[in-house]
């Protein structure tokens, strides 16, 4: 069992390099979801979507089967706008991991082009201090590797892609 959260960058710059990048990220999330056993007793999945604004698309308790999560991801619209990764990390901490009472591994996958307009260091440290393992996945042609490294758990080579 695991609490698995995605923080999905929906900023305008995601699709600048390739208009298909946002859909590619959704497909990536779907493939990961399909590799887990989703149920109320097993893996729970949550999604925070962000650009200039941050939205909790669904929390860990909303869906208890893979098909419902896949549908929710597929129907997530591309918001465009700025890149407020720090705010999205704060929401993942308060609305997802902060609301989960389960003593299971906690994993966060951040999907971004890594050009946040706000600070990511403090919110990512706060998550890691609570035992959340963070993977940072860069997409596009403007990836900021230093930002991915700041967010990701140690060892960086295992948590930054």
Automatic annotation (TrEMBL):
Q: Cite a GO CC annotation.
A: extracellular region
Recorded hits in CDD domains, A to Z, give: vWA_collagen
- Gene3D superfamilies in the record, alphabetically? von Willebrand factor, type A domain
Where, per UniProt, does this protein localize?
A: Secreted
Where's the VWFA domain? 3-161
Q: Which UniProt keywords apply?
A: Glycoprotein, Repeat, Secreted, Signal
Q: Which InterPro entries match?
A: ECM_Assembly_Org (IPR050525), VWF_A (IPR002035), vWFA_dom_sf (IPR036465)
The name on file for this protein is VWFA domain-containing protein
